[in-house]
Design a protein that fits this description.
22% strand, alpha+beta, elongated, 658 residues, 6-stranded mixed sheet, 7-stranded antiparallel sheet, 31% helix, 23 strands
Length: 658
C-alpha cells in the first residue's frame, strides 16, 4: 500500500500517462521515461512549502519509480548564499514505501516503469474511503526533524540492533567494499552523524546520483540506513538502491534514497538520470521553500514589531484592535493601525495599507507609520497630516502607494475630524444600533502626489463606536469593495448592537469572515466614544494682561470648590499662576485655561506663542526662572507641547481618595 495525493481543488490533476510498452529485458522506452519526468517535476515544482514539496516527491516516486523512498535533510537547512563552516548533519525527514514493513510486496503487473502518477490520482478516492471505513491507512513514515525512528518489523531470524539493515545490505556487497561504521559509534534514530569526510561526504560533494552497490559506496549506504529504515533482507542483489544528493544553488540540502524490491527490474543507468532530475527539482523546491519561509518569517516579525504593542488608555475613549495576517500561501502585507494621544485629551486614530505583499511593503509601512507619528505630534489637522505624508511618501519612491484614514476625536467637544486618502470608509455604529458609512471624500492614495485632501467634522456623541479597517476585511476575489462595505454595515447594524465589549465586537467582526484562503491581511481598530461629562470640565478664555494671573487663580479655586477638591486648591492655584504668567509674557492673543477632572486633575494653558518653556536652574540673583521648577516639584506630571496654533503647557495632580 502507498499513500496517494488528491490534487487540490482548482488545480489540474497530473497528466494521464499512456501504458508504457513492455520490453522483454525490463527497460523502459525513453518516451515513457520523459513523460514520467515531465509530470513528476511539475508536481514537485508546484509545492509552496517544504512539506508539500517533499510530499509531491514521495508520491511521484512511489510506486511509479521506486518501491520506497527515504529523504534526509541537512539540519538545519541552510538559507541564502552564506557558506556554512560546520559539518553537514543529516536527519531523516520523511519516508514512504509501497510494501508492508515485513516486506511482502505485491508484484506489479508490468515490468516497465509504473504509470502511477495518474493511477495514484485515480485511486486517491478509494484510498480515502478505505481510511474512512476503518481499514488500514497507507504507510507513511514522517519524522520532521524529530529523533523518532520509524516502526520497522524485522524478520524473526534477522539480525537485531541499529545496524541490522546495514548488515543485511552490506552482505550483498563485495567484501572489499564492506566498511561498516564502528559498532561503538553513537547513533540517534533517524540521524546521520556530521558528514565531514568519508564516502558519503564524497557523494554529497560530487552531487551525482550513484548506485548503492557501486564499489566503495557501502559506507555511505551504512550511514544512511543505520537508523533501521529498511527491513533486513529487503534488498536483493543488484542495482536496487540509488543515493541522489540534493544540491541547491549554494548548499547541500540533503539526500534521497530510492529502493526497488526483487519483484521489479533493477535500476539502470537511465534511471540514474531520472533520479538526478527528481533530485535537482526537489533541491530547488526545498531551497525555494526555505527562502520563502525565511522571508515570510522576517517580514511577519518586521510587521508585528512595527504595529503598536499596546493601545493607549485615554480618558473618554475605549480602544480595541486586531491584526489578522493573510493565509500562509500569501506574503505579508503592509496593513497598520495606530492610536496617538494628542494635547487636550484628544486622540488620533489611524489605519493604513501599503499596496503589495512583500518585505518591502512591511518596511514602507513602518516608515509611513513613523512619519504619521511625527506629524501627529505637531497637532496638525487630518488633511494637513495626509498632505505631508503624501510628500514624504514620494521621497521614498514613486512606486510605493498606500491608503490611509486619519481621524481626531475630541472627548470634550464630542466631535470627530476625519480625512481620507483612498482608504475604505469608516463605519460609525450609533448608540441606537444604526450603522452609518461615513461620507468623507476619498482622496487619492498616498504617494500619488499633487492631491488636495479634505477634512470633514462630524458629531461623535457618547456611546457611538467607530470601526476602522483595511480592505482585506471587505474585499475578496468574489466581492468588490463597495459590496463588502455595505455588507459590513448591515452586519454591524443587525448583530453588533448591544455588544458592550469592544474585544467581543472585534471578534464578532472577524468571525463573519467566511472560510477559505485570504489573499490579504486585515487590520481592525475600533473606538467607543464615552466623552467627558460637562460638569467635569472648566474652560475659560483670558486676555493677556498683568491681571490675568489673579483672575486665573480665582476661577481655579471656584472650580475646585465645586468639585469638592478644596485640598488641592493652594498648590493648584500656585502652579496655575506660574504657567499663566509665563503665557502672558509671550501671548499676543487671548489664551485659554482648561481644568479637567478625571482620575487625575489636569490643567492646560494654551497660548499662540510657539516658544516652549524649558525648566532651568535660576541663579541666586535672578528674578525669574523658578516657575517651572515649582511646577516640577508639586505636579504629578507636567509637559509642554507645540500645536498648530501655538503651544500647550499642562500639569496633572493626583486626586486624593475620599
Amino acid at each position: 500500500m502507498t499513500e496517494h495525493h488528491t490534487p487540490q481543488e482548482g488545480t489540474a490533476p497530473p497528466q494521464v500517462l499512456l501504458p508504457p510498452a513492455v520490453v522483454t529485458d525490463g527497460r523502459v522506452p525513453q518516451t515513457d521515461r520523459l513523460r514520467y519526468l515531465d509530470v513528476a517535476t511539475r508536481r514537485i515544482a508546484r509545492g509552496m512549502d517544504l512539506d508539500e514539496t517533499l510530499r509531491e516527491l514521495r508520491q511521484a516516486a512511489v510506486p511509479a519509480f521506486a518501491d520506497a523512498i527515504f529523504i534526509h535533510l541537512d539540519d538545519p537547512l541552510p538559507v541564502g548564499a552564506e557558506r556554512s563552516t560546520g559539518p553537514v548533519v543529516l536527519r531523516l525527514h520523511s519516508s514512504e514505501r509501497a510494501w508492508p514493513t515485513a516486506f511482502h510486496p505485491t508484484p506489479p503487473t508490468d515490468s516497465a516503469l509504473a504509470p502511477a502518477l495518474d493511477t495514484a490520482t485515480a485511486t486517491a478516492t478509494a484510498t480515502n474511503q478505505a481510511t474512512d471505513d476503518g481499514r488500514s491507512a497507507p504507510h507513511t513514515d514522517t519524522a520532521p526533524y524529530a529523533d523518532s525512528q520509524p516502526h520497522i518489523d524485522s524478520a524473526p531470524d534477522a539480525p537485531k540492533g541499529p545496524h541490522a539493515a546495514t548488515a543485511a545490505y552490506a552482505a550483498q556487497v563485495p567484501a572489499a567494499d564492506r566498511t561498516p561504521p564502528p559498532p561503538a559509534l553513537p547513533r540517534i534514530a533517524g540521524r546521520v552523524e556530521p558528514v565531514g569526510s568519508g564516502r558519503l561526504a564524497e557523494l554529497l560533494r560530487d552531487g551525482r546520483p550513484a548506485f548503492g552497490d557501486a564499489p566503495g559506496n557501502a559506507p555511505a549506504v551504512a550511514e544512511l540506513l543505520a537508523a533501521g529504515t529498511v527491513p533486513p533482507g529487503a534488498l536483493p542483489p543488484g542495482h536496487r538502491l540509488i543515493i541522489a544528493p540534493l544540491h541547491g544553488s549554494h548548499h547541500v540540502m540533503g539526500t534521497v534514497v530510492l529502493l526497488r524490491s526483487a519483484d521489479r527490474p533493477v535500476f539502470t543507468n537511465d534511471d540514474l538520470l531520472v533520479a538526478s532530475q527528481l533530485a535537482t527539482h526537489t533541491a530547488l523546491g526545498v531551497q525555494k521553500a526555505v527562502m520563502y519561509g525565511h522571508e515570510a518569517a522576517v517580514a511577519d516579525t518586521l510587521q508585528h514589531t512595527m504595529l503598536p504593542s499596546s493601545l493607549p488608555e485615554p480618558t473618554g475613549i475605549r480602544l480595541a484592535s486586531r491584526y489578522l495576517p493573510a493565509s500562509k500561501t500569501a506574503q505579508v502585507g503592509g496593513d497598520w493601525y495606530d492610536a496617538i494621544p494628542l494635547p487636550g485629551n484628544r486622540i488620533a486614530l489611524i489605519v493604513g495599507d501599503v499596496m503589495g505583499h512583500s518585505m518591502t511593503s512591511a518596511a514602507i509601512m513602518g516608515q509611513l507609520r513613523t512619519i504619521v507619528q511625527t506629524l501627529a505630534g505637531l497637532d496638525l489637522p487630518p488633511n494637513e497630516v495626509l498632505h505631508h505624508l503624501d510628500e514624504q511618501a514620494q521621497r521614498l519612491g514613486s512606486d510605493h502607494i498606500a491608503t490611509c484614514l486619519y481621524a481626531i476625536y475630541d472627548p470634550i467637544s464630542h466631535r470627530l475630524l476625519m480625512a481620507n486618502a483612498g482608504h475604505p470608509p469608516a463605519v460609525l455604529l450609533h448608540k441606537d444600533g444604526r450603522a452609518e458609512v461615513l461620507a468623507v471624500p476619498p482622496g487619492a492614495p498616498i504617494g500619488v502626489g499633487g492631491v488636495v485632501f479634505e477634512s470633514v467634522e462630524m458629531a461623535a456623541p457618547p456611546g457611538t463606536t467607530l470601526v476602522l479597517y483595511t480592505d482585506g476585511l471587505v474585499e475578496s476575489r468574489d466581492t468588490d469593495i463597495g459590496s463588502g462595505v455595505e455588507a459590513l454595515r448591515v452586519r454591524l447594524q443587525t448583530t453588533a448592537h448591544g455588544l458592550s465589549s469592544l474585544e467581543v465586537l472585534c471578534d464578532h467582526v472577524l468571525g463573519t469572515l467566511g472560510p477559505g484562503t485570504r489573499d490579504d491581511d486585515i487590520a481592525l481598530l475600533t473606538a467607543r466614544f464615552d466623552g467627558f461629562p460637562p460638569d467635569s470640565v472648566g474652560y475659560w478664555f483670558l486676555a493677556p494682561h498683568p491681571m490675568t494671573a489673579g483672575q486665573a487663580r480665582r476661577l481655579t479655586r471656584r472650580a475646585l470648590r465645586r468639585w469638592g477638591l478644596d485640598s488641592l486648591a493652594d498648590p493648584t492655584e500656585l502652579m496655575v499662576s506660574e504657567v499663566v504668567t509665563n503665557a502672558v509674557r509671550f501671548a499676543s492673543r487671548p489664551l485659554s485655561l482648561r481644568l479637567l477632572r478625571t482620575d487625575v486633575l489636569r490643567c492646560e494653558v494654551t497660548d499662540d506663542s510657539p516658544q516652549v518653556p524649558r525648566m532651568r536652574q535660576a541663579g541666586s540673583g535672578d528674578e525669574s526662572g523658578r516657575g517651572l521648577f515649582l511646577v516640577n516639584q508639586l505636579a504629578l506630571r507636567w509637559g509642554a507641547t507645540r500645536v498648530s496654533s501655538g503651544k500647550v503647557v499642562w500639569f496633572e495632580q493626583k486626586i486624593p481618595a475620599k
